[in-house]
Specification:
Length: 456
């Protein structure tokens, strides 16, 4: 069977399975994404080992599926950006910074210390700590969407902290890459080219290559956000209005998807941050656009109908737990460290800035999940011989377990009574009543006179 037909068959198996599993979970009050994740786990090496059946021999279809899944992560973060309450995020920017800093420092320190106490040398222990530092906001964003909480103050803090967390995690990744000369997985980025040029021609920079790399990354990050945000604020609405003049079917969603992918590519190439950060940035800008609702409707069908379920199923498909034998203690301790450092570290940082206990707990729960950056660090350590297969399996299992725990913990936290929720609901009701009142006045003004005036 050709790779194209293999891919078609994989999608035909996974898509309905994810939707059935999600429906079953929803009926029992469980987040839908947990069902989608479990489909991937059951189809992965731990149970069915779907990608290694004779029917899918060769592995090309599996690789193609993972590419679609990565696009799913990009689309998911674009939708998360669309649903962001911009005003509340601006109000929560300082809190988000505190949460992000705390959410990187504590997992790095305690994860490294715990791994060393379990018998690992300092270098692999440092890589384990670095892999625990990054947060995967995709899971939290989907959970917030499903719960209808994307406009809450907690969501603003969570999504803002996740963007900052991604930038901080990049510096951790650069430091670890320099320690093993692995290149950090950054590839042909502008920051890499600048570092090579500076260290090759400036004697002082050559003596401090890590510092030079950090400065280059910082400059590229700032440049990307300035150009990306400023440029889109200037051309976005006029561009969409021009797109709407195209007569081809679904021309606007197609062009917007292309724009999202360009921002995702530019995020890694120019900004040296994860592609999902670029997708979130353009979605965040769309959230302030007058044409937000028009774009949002199209992407819901595209994202939730195809790409996003494949993204969550792929997480389980990539996990192999057969190498965990004899390392259950390490897995248990690192999992507890992963949960504790984000839950308490991020939650405490939110409380320091004045958030209440329950909202802070929600922030801590949302930051538990690990994902892309953690897996990148794991792969980098494995490729250079720093991680053994057992340590790779432990880290993948921790990523998966935190991914499974996060939606459950976050949904439970949002069920807790909170005074702030009542205040937010009152504000939303007042705002909606004001909008309804204005619309009613407009209708009255436009209505024909009554009784009708008949001209003779």
């Amino acid at each position: 069977m050709s790779p194209t037909l293999q891919l078609a068959l994989l999608i035909a198996i996974l898509l309905p399975a994810t939707k059935v599993a999600a429906t079953v979970c929803e009926r029992y009050g469980i987040p839908a994404i947990l069902g989608e994740l479990m489909v991937g786990v059951l189809a992965g090496p731990a149970v069915l080992n779907l990608l290694h059946l004779p029917l899918f021999h060769g592995g090309e279809a599996g690789n193609m599926l993972l590419v679609l899944a990565q696009i799913g992560g990009v689309v998911l973060m674009f939708i998360a950006g669309l649903e962001t309450d911009v005003e509340r995020m601006r109000e929560a920017s300082f809190t988000a910074t505190l949460v992000a800093i705390s959410g990187v420092i504590w997992p790095m320190l305690l994860g490294t210390g715990a791994a060393h106490m379990l018998g690992l040398d300092w270098k692999p222990a440092l890589f384990l700590g670095g892999a625990l530092a990054a947060t995967s906001v995709s899971i939290s964003a989907r959970t917030l969407m499903d719960a209808g909480k994307m406009v809450s103050r907690e969501a603003s803090v969570i999504l803002g902290a996740a963007v900052i967390d991604d930038v901080l995690s990049l510096f951790v990744l650069a430091f670890l890459a320099a320690s093993c000369n692995a290149g950090g997985g950054e590839g042909a980025s502008v920051a890499t080219w600048i570092t090579e040029q500076v260290t090759g021609h400036v004697g002082l920079a050559a003596q401090f290559p890590l510092t030079s790399q950090m400065i280059a990354i910082a400059l590229c990050v700032v440049l990307y956000f300035i150009l990306g945000y400023g440029g889109a604020k200037y051309f976005l609405d006029p561009l969409i209005l021009r797109m709407r003049k195209l007569t081809a079917d679904e021309a606007v969603p197609a062009c917007v998807l292309a724009l999202v992918l360009v921002y995702a590519v530019a995020a890694e190439w120019l900004g040296s941050v994860a592609a999902i950060t670029g997708a979130y940035l353009i979605g965040f800008i769309f959230a302030e656009s007058k044409l937000k609702a028009y774009v949002e409707r199209s992407f819901y069908a595209l994202g939730h109908g195809l790409f996003i379920p494949l993204f969550f199923a792929s997480i389980g498909l990539e996990s192999d737990f057969r190498a965990l034998q004899g390392h259950w203690l390490m897995l248990g301790i690192l999992f507890l460290v992963a949960v504790f450092t984000k839950l308490v570290g991020c939650g405490a940082a939110a409380m320091v800035d004045g958030m209440g206990f329950v909202p802070s707990l929600r922030v801590g729960c949302a930051m538990i999940s690990r994902g892309e950056v953690g897996l990148i660090i794991t792969v980098m350590a494995a490729s250079t011989g720093i991680f053994t297969p057992s340590e790779v399996a432990v880290m993948v299992a921790v990523v998966l377990l935190t991914t499974l725990v996060t939606p459950l913990a976050l949904r439970a936290a949002f069920r807790l009574p909170c005074e702030q929720d009542a205040e937010d609901q009152a504000e939303d009701a007042l705002e909606q009543a004001t909008i309804d009142g204005l619309e009613a006045e407009e209708l009255v003004e436009r209505a024909p006179p009554w009784p009708p005036v008949h001209e003779d």
